[in-house]
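Lecture notes, unit on protein representations.

Consider one protein chain, 316 amino acids long.
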Amino acid sequence: MQDVPGRPSILHLEDDSNDAELIRFHLRSKQFDCAITWVKSPHEFRRALESGMFDLVLSDYRMPGFSGEDALRLVRTDHNHLPFIMLTGELGEDRAIETIKRGATDYVLKGNLARLVPSIERALREARAEAERNRAESELRGLKDQLSRELADMHRLHELSTRLFRGKRLDAMLQGVLAASVELLRAEKGTVQIHDEPSQSLLMKGYVGFNPELIGHFLTVPSGQGVCGLALQKRHRIIAENVHTDDRFISIRPFFVREGIVACVSTPFRGHDGRVLGMLNTHFPRPHRPSDHELKLLDLYVQQAERVVEYVQEAC
């Protein structure tokens, strides 16, 4: 994490203050603009790493009680994205190869600091490229996952539509729409109701997840009562993200508490003339608001309920 855009932040582990000052002086003399933090103990090193403030690590190879290899192991275990450059007075070819194999980005001899700035610049370029590659791959995976979910949703919608119009009974067909909607939103419970226009109330036609004895007390819900009654009164969807903090629903809180319900989404379905034909309700055990994508899909499911009711009404 850079404290100034474009200005790298470097963590330097070095037990010798003279060598630390030498590195700082060299970078300054080469006009390499960076923020460099010097630490000299394992404790300081670990604490600095945990801050997440750095773009690159420079580490001495030989230190009493905590070697450069120990530092490298720690970085690769917990902060693997950070470039790591080993600084050493001398390092044989075999040891240098082994250091690179263990995860060091590069090594620079203290007697040949001319390589230091180019090494840092290359390491930072590669780290940025790797971060960008990882970000792009993550976005691509996300898009693929989203496309896969949308295709699955469309497939379920097609199956639902095909299944519904093989049915004959209104209650069974509405129950199918409700079950599909509960699955779509990953809800815990749900109900579906038909609008009785003369009484301006909602009549229960199906439910998922509720106790049958308890649901018997809510076979009829008048306009304006509860979440579904308010949706009927307002003639649009009502999302109650948390009924326990929403003062519009004080009267139904005891029922929601008893049933372990916290959130509710009530969506009217309408006829071609705009009349409210019924209501589809989904219930959740935690504070919840469906995503815009889920609500768009829910509207497609609700359209199936609209077609079902009008199909049955026309057949009668």
